[in-house]
Amino acid sequence: MYKGREYEIYFPINSGDTSIEGVELATYQKLHFLGVPALNWFGVQANWTYINMEGEDRKILAQMPKHVINFALTYDNPDIGFSGTVGLNWNGMVFEKYEKGVPIWNTPIHRLDASANYALTDNIRVYVRGKNLLDSPGDPEWEYKPTLDETRLHEIKYYGRWFSAGIDYSL
Predict the structure, then answer these.
(1) Partners of 70 in beta bridges
(2) What is the pLDDT along the chain (171 residues), one digit of tens a residue?
(3) Fewer C-beta within 10 Å: the chain N or C terminus?
(4) In angstroms, rounded to a whole number, what is the distance separating the alpha carbons of residues 13 and 117?
(5) DSSP per residue over 80-128, as a string?
């Protein structure tokens, strides 16, 4: 109670003994093997991660998706000092928290990101980065009540697009 008003406060707590195991498959392949000169500086990167976790009393851990998938197209040409990446990222459903004893889940999210770097000199690079270029909503949260066999929207967060630009200097 604060100033005559009652508030409910939710926060994470340690869950005791926890087991986390998983597997990650990843590959990166430059496309020069195709024999097409225009593709010599391009590459493809992909990975999939699976995480299985369980805490004490069969509780699951918050903020850990079971599946994560990333795919990126890269370009890196040191002859002209330019590199760039366009990547699609997908996170599976994530347990967020318990609220009043009800589990709250974030639905899967996807995001398209891009970055580019250009070397002005051996020591100075300029860069530009963009995140969530598709303006995807982030972390829609759903309440799941198994005893009532009912699911309802809890909240949706919108992060918008993020952009940054700058200069890197290395000694």
Answers:
(1) 47, 89
(2) 678 888 766 666 666 677 788 999 999 999 999 999 989 999 999 999 998 877 665 566 667 788 999 999 999 999 999 999 999 999 888 777 777 777 777 777 889 999 999 999 999 999 999 999 998 876 555 555 444 455 566 666 777 899 999 999 998
(3) C
(4) 41
(5) TTEEEEEEEEEE--EEEEEETTEEEEEPPEEEEEEEEEEESSSSEEEEE
Rg over CA atoms, the chain: 22
Q: How many CA atoms lie within 13 A of 63 on its CB side?
A: 2
Please write down the HEC assignment for all residues of 140-159: EEEEEECCCCEEEEEEEECC
Q: Name every residue whose Cβ is closer than 8 Å to that of residue 61 and which is 6 or more positions away in sequence.
A: 15, 18, 20, 53, 55, 95
| Bridge-based pairing state of the strands 102-106 and 138-145 | antiparallel
